[in-house]
Amino acid sequence: MLSIGRALMTNPRLLVQDEATEGLAPLIVAEIWRVVAAIRATGISTLIVDRNFRRVLAHTDRAVVLEKGELVMDGPSNSLDSAQLAQRLGV
Predict the structure, then answer these.
(1) Ramachandran region, residue 19 (left: φ > 0; alpha: ψ -120 to 50; beta: rest)
(2) For strand 62-67 and strand 70-76, is the pairing parallel, antiparallel, or unpaired?
(3) How many other β-carbons are positioned within 10 Å of the β-carbon of residue 21?
(4) Which residue range forms the structural domain that includes residue 15?
(5) Which of 12, 30, 68, 75 is the most exposed place for a label (fewest CB within 10 A)?
(6) Is the pTM of this model over 0.85?
(7) Cβ atoms 63, 56 nearer than 8 A
């Protein structure tokens, strides 16, 4: 939360979040995703890298899946197939 807050103090046009919820307690994870939604509502562009693709898709307009640096899936978040994502991501 502190890192996100510090980043927001610079009035960024793009906020990059790499595994922002990894290793955190479930209540804190829920709060992080609430903050992600609030940031999105302000119009700040956000690049989110996270293992929980369902949460990512719920908070993004577009999703890109890379496998060993190669683009394997790309499109509007609401159009990507969750079953294919789960299979490809091994979850």
Answers:
(1) left
(2) antiparallel
(3) 20
(4) 2-89
(5) 68
(6) no
(7) yes
CB atoms within 10 A of CB 17: 19
CATH of the domain at 66: 3.40.50.300
Half-sphere exposure of 22 (CA within 13 A, CB side): 8
Calpha distance 78→18 (Å, rounded): 21
**Residue 91 scores a pLDDT above 70:** no
Radius of gyration of the chain (CA): 14
* Distance separating alpha carbons of residues 2 and 43, to the nearest angstrom: 20
The number of folded domains in the chain is: 1
- Return the H-helix or E-strand segment holding 48: strand 45-49
